[in-house]
From TrEMBL:
One Pfam family hit: UPF0102
Record GO terms (molecular function): nucleic acid binding
Xref: InterPro entries: Restrct_endonuc-II-like, tRNA_endonuc-like_dom_sf, UPF0102_YraN-like
Family: Belongs to the UPF0102 family.
Coiled coil: none
Record protein name field: UPF0102 protein ABR748_33600
């Protein structure tokens, strides 16, 4: 795994911990199909949550959440539809797409930001 992959994996690990600490259950990580990948699928009560995780070093110019363009948001919606088709449809509590941004500074603790229902 290269440094970029390791940084992404670290951010996803932090995001999964953030979700479980918030009372959610992580169902799947890095679910893939031909259309792409969902970083984290979690259950929040009766709702199903599809999470995109973006991790950046603090010396970058762009906030991690700015990396989710309208095209990427549409891809996430399509991936959620495919996942639901393959896993029996949406739950009673509905479906939501969340975004978790992780900023990893050169020194100190990483900063995480969780935006619910972004798409």
């Amino acid at each position: 795994m290269n440094a970029r992959g390791a940084l992404g994996r670290y951010g996803e690990d932090l995001a999964a911990r953030l979700l479980t600490d918030a009372g959610m259950a992580v169902i799947e990580r890095n679910w893939r199909c031909r259309a792409g990948e969902v970083d984290i699928v979690a259950r929040d009560g009766d709702a199903l949550v599809f999470c995109e995780v973006k991790t950046r070093r603090s010396d970058g110019f762009e906030h991690p959440m700015a990396a989710v363009t309208p095209v990427k948001a549409e891809r996430l919606r399509r991936l959620a539809e495919i996942w639901l088709e393959r896993h029996g449809g949406p739950p009673a509590g509905g479906v939501r797409i969340d975004l978790i941004g992780v900023i990893v500074p050169r020194r100190g603790a990483p900063v995480t930001e969780h935006a619910r229902g972004v798409s």
